[in-house]
Amino acid sequence: MTLVSKADAQRVADAISAAESKTSGEIVAVIAPESGSYLHVPILLAALAALAVPWPFVFWTWWPIQHIYVVQLVVFAGLALLFMLRPLRLALVPGSVKRQHAHRRAVEQFLAQNLHTVPGGAGVLIFVSVAERFAEILADAAIHQKVPEGTWRRIVDELTDHIGKGQPGDGFVRAIEQVGEHLARHFPPGVHDPRQLGNHLIILPAG
User: Fold this and answer.
1) 204: DSSP letter
2) 1 in a structural domain
3) 202: helix, strand or coil
4) Dihedral angle at the C-alpha atoms of 142, 156, 114, 202, nearest 10 degrees?
5) Which domain holds residue 76?
6) pLDDT digit string, tens, across residues 51-75
7) What is the CATH number of the domain that holds 181?
8) Gap between the Cα atoms of 178 and 59, Å rounded
9) Which of 178, 145, 139 is nearest to 162 (CA)?
10) In this structure, are strands 123-129 and 134-139 parallel, antiparallel, or unpaired?
11) What are the start-end ranges of the E strands in the chain?
């Protein structure tokens, strides 16, 4: 699932470079096509439906138990295959579960991209999980403590608003600019600011 074009990906990389030129902090932008497969959901729902199948036949018909069992198996297999269809599978997953998975993936990426190793605790992750329609900014302790409460949420809201309008490139660039302004204010460039992390937009593989 592609959220940004190659041209937008380059704009994001350029925005990160421009923002980081004014700070000793680091910004990483990550897009995940999805944060979970949720394959257990079709199996669970199909199993629950199949468990309910025998009761009408037991009470209101004279069908042999073998026939009822076959119907139960057919219902389970049919619903499991139907619910495996990706759009339906994602629609069946509760929003709270999808948010939990996406947040966990964001935390994993914060660590995987080594943002916790940025000197001075000035690492910031901008994370979007497409399938879950989820976006989050994770900041290391030092910069998080210096930014007013609700700041990251407002930046994320603007980012998701742009994505909803079909302008993901503009949304990422704007979010990076705003994050960069806070980093520059509290973590200006120092004498030794070797860039530890790449500036390109990271797009994770699906699955």
Assistant:
1) P
2) no
3) strand
4) -160
5) 40-92
6) 998 888 878 888 888 888 898 899 9
7) 3.10.310.50
8) 65
9) 178
10) antiparallel
11) 26-32, 123-129, 134-139, 202-203
